[in-house]
């Protein structure tokens, strides 16, 4: 654990914003992708974003368009979503979300806000984050910390409620932590690594407050959180998008923080793929779960963070170089993911019939995947219509498990093409019992058991079948599902899931996760009053009530970024 008594003086100077300093995504030439799309002339329900352009009144903000409005219109297709200053007020929920047919707010909403406010963590008088869980019943372990990934739904709830200050404080505080020297034993970690979590230590005798941060040196398995830096960039863009305050992202220290994160993941090495090579347990699934290699969660967050950085980086000297590298990587990454991680009925059938031991450029089975390694469950799981990005692809390795976070982020970031996004939602609808069951939403599907569990988890008693990271159900994922539903124009799916959660979440004390094939049982070691379960519910409710919030966490497909040739006619 790294400790340091931090000087909290921040450079409060606010720069004038020049819209020309921010990049327009449309300027980039994505047209040189190797494959051309087939004309999929399908009558699909248009995404919410598409509809928003033609049917929603643009600029429905009560304020006249500011420089910031124009600035956003310049690069973001979700124009109609941007409404700076639309909400104000600090202590009570302002939006009308949560109202049922009787126009009464759901009682859980007020309770959730109370809980969320009680989870606030202060440093020298300022709120800087939310504690992971307010569960005093058991030993705390590290649940008394502010986790970067856990804070994301809290941050979104506060932004949606017109309370951006805490988010700004968090962004700046974690940025200060990034600049600490990070060591595990005698090894120094990369400069750009963001902490997994931090906590505030109070010394009543000396009357000081000290921050303690964990960059992986205290974490189970000593793994650095690869996702933290990506979430930080994604949050910076959400803050900027929601408030219209571009000055935060434009601060030199924020620009530098972004560049340091990007340096870590854009550096050259021995890679033959544009995906990011990871250790097991470096993200939400922070224990050994066989997700080492190229896990979908990290690849989707990587893609999303790159797209957000492209919107936020200034085109000055160092920024410009990064912008060029990002564009190249986005190109390669989207091609790789859409081609090799995508699975639908047609693709599954192709793999089933793969030849092996092909050598040279003409190989069809490029990674030499053995058809015998196809698990039996996947043949039943795959619906006629639908598909998903599989868990991992590497040499002779395809992990066919379905992971919720990666697939939802793929939709929100437009890593998934429009057709793929629709197919992911089709699959969720067709496999409702398996993926949603009694409590939304499975972190992964299916569980690994018996011998496989022994080998893959190292006999982890916390990750037994259908528990925790191994096929457990996590209420926090509700916000991601809701956002994906709105983006694909299917809010009714989210509504169904939220209704399910409302039957139990509060009664059960807002658990961290549920166990069992259907997610019927409160998790074996689940914390109660888990903040991201609470915040995830609030964000889902607010987004459904006011879909314009989607703009904070979604990016539309770049029109010039041509999707790769579809392998399937199943959607
Ligand atoms: C668990 C989860 C991790 C989360 C942490 C705090 O370790 O696996 O994703 O950040 O708890 O809630």
Features:
alpha+beta; Glycosyltransferase; four-stranded antiparallel sheet; 19 helices; globular; binds alpha-D-glucopyranose; Glyco_hydro_100; sucrose alpha-glucosidase activity; glycosidase; endo-alpha-N-acetylgalactosaminidase activity; Alkaline/neutral invertase
3D structure, described in words:
The chain has 571 residues and is α+β, with helices and mostly antiparallel strands. It has a single domain, classed as Glycosyltransferase (Alpha/alpha barrel). It contains 19 helices and 14 strands. It has a four-stranded antiparallel sheet with strand order 1-8-7-4. A hairpin with a 2-residue loop joins strand 2 and strand 3. Helix 4 runs parallel beside helix 6, helix 8 packs antiparallel against helix 9 and helix 13 packs parallel to helix 17. The longest helix is centred in the middle third of the chain and has 25 residues. The protein starts with a strand and ends in a 26-residue tail after the last helix. Bound molecules: alpha-D-glucopyranose (GLC). The site of alpha-D-glucopyranose has 6 residues, from helix 4. Alpha-D-glucopyranose binds next to helix 4.
